[in-house]
Amino acid sequence: MPQAEPWSYGLVRDVALETSEDHVLIRTPARTLRFAGKENAELVRLLAKGDAAEDALGAAVNASDMCAALLFRLDQIGLLIRSLLHEGRRIAACVPHRAPEHGLPQSLSAPTLQLSSRVILQPVDLGYRVYVPGSWAEIEILGAGSSLLLFDLAQGMDAKAITAARYDLDPLALDTLLRMFQWCGLLDTSSAPHVPTHEALFHSRTRTGFSRSPIGKTGEPPSIKAAGSAPQIELPMLNIADLIARDPPYALVSQRRKSQRTQGSDPISREQLGELLFRCFYTGNGHHAYPSGGGLYPLTAHLVVHRSDGLASGLYSYDAGHHGLNMIADINPSLKALVMEAASAADTTSPSQILLVLSANLNEMRWVYGDLAYSLVLKEVGAVFQTVQLAGAAMNLAVCPLGTGNSLRFAQASGLSEFDDPSVGEMLIGSAK
Q: How many helical (H) and strand (E) elements, i.e. helices and strands, does the chain have?
């Protein structure tokens, strides 16, 4: 390049500093970095205040070589925000989540520039953030010309045909901005099939290594809720010792376990359903039959009863502490539709005798686990599926987990929030054929 790129620099915003006269500590969620020397300490303090040009930083400590070395090191470990200047103002910033995989490209890699179909835009102060899930860094767009450039790139552009004047940028700023986009993964540079955006986003936000942000337990759970009143319908209490004595061995149960979509002609009895719920969900004895992230147990079991010997049709919630049922709604067209949609999901035309619906208290999980909350809920749903299938095999019941269900219809029927207390898992349950 005939000219140097017009950069300013700043420290990433999610670190903590501990400074003294002759050294500074930079604490990230993963590690602590120590930079010795009063010049380095002053440089880090200046970077933490906001954007500064390299020559201004070097002049502030009268040590340009030391400044260049510090910027290089911070850049290599992913702690340096690099902002592009045009006519003295910031128009875009590269904000790293982790160390870069390579340096800023010296040239564009493709003759046609196409914005990635996986790009996500979110508003931020003075502009918006643009990123591809899983990328090492995001771009903050801070100028109207840059916004127009994104619009044109979404349509696809010939790199040679781009006119800098259209974006109120000089040629050097435009070229640098495009190379920043390529560096951060905003441009399609490969014809290989992409991972779906929602999968990449979910995966990168729930697995470590993609960013400095802590993943895991980030808060304390709320206080334990007081036990509620007795349920409307008390189910027969069972004796664990009796179940142990009559149950087949685990090896046999695990071999019997399979998804059974076809159910018997006789409806499941209230006693059978109560026993299944007792085996899988009862907590009155202080024990849970399946694991849960942090021991929070956010799931609640609901039953849409279509046909049962001893229970009226309708929607019920299971009281795990008291081993009973509370009726939420009588059978209605919405619940009937929910049952038929579940049958369709299982590729059968016969409605299930019982539709088990698991809802999750996501607010509580988010409070404790942040971004990891939904991932932990889904893992718990899988554990419940296995628990119910094994119990069903031991009891000779027809049980079939489903891949999806209608959360909106369940929210309307139950009165629960479709995002704070959503349905997250469904199973067909009935008598065996």
A: 13, 20
Amino acid identity for residue 159 in this structure: A
Distance from C-alpha of 416 to C-alpha of 422, rounded to nearest angstrom: 7
> Percent helix, strand, coil in the chain (nearest 5)?
35, 25, 40
Closest by alpha carbon to 392, among 429, 358, 343, 357?
429
Three-state SS at 373: helix
Across-strand partners of 305? 314, 354
Comparing 21-35, 273-287, 335-349, 377-391, the range with the smallest average pLDDT is 21-35
Residue entry with tokens 């493709």: 110
Closest by CA position to 407, among listed 323, 338, 348, 307: 338
CA distance 292 to 380: 6
Q: Model-level pTM?
A: 0.90
Place of tokens 């003075």: 126
Which domains, ranges and CATH numbers included, belong to the chain? 1-77 (3.90.930.60), 83-215 (no CATH), 233-431 (3.40.109.10)
**How many other C-beta atoms can be found within 10 angstroms of the C-beta atom of residue 102?**
7
Residue 285 structure tokens: 């004895």
For 376, the token pair is 């932990």
SS3 84: strand
Report the greatest alpha carbon distance in the chain.
Answer: 88
Contact 218, 373 (CB under 8 A): no
* Per-residue pLDDT tens digits for 111-136: 889 999 999 999 988 899 999 999 99
What pLDDT is attached to residue 125?
Answer: 84
User: For the segment 192-223, what is each residue's pLDDT rounded down to a tens digit?
Assistant: 788 999 999 999 999 999 999 888 888 887 76
Distances (CA, A) of 41 to 22, 29, 221, 403, 411: 6, 20, 38, 55, 55
The pLDDT score that the predictor gives to residue 226 is 60
Q: Other C-beta atoms within 10 Å of 123: how many? A: 8
Joined tokens for residue 28? 């990230």
169 within 8 A of 91, measured Cβ to Cβ: yes
**160 Cβ partners below 8 Å, 6+ apart?**
111
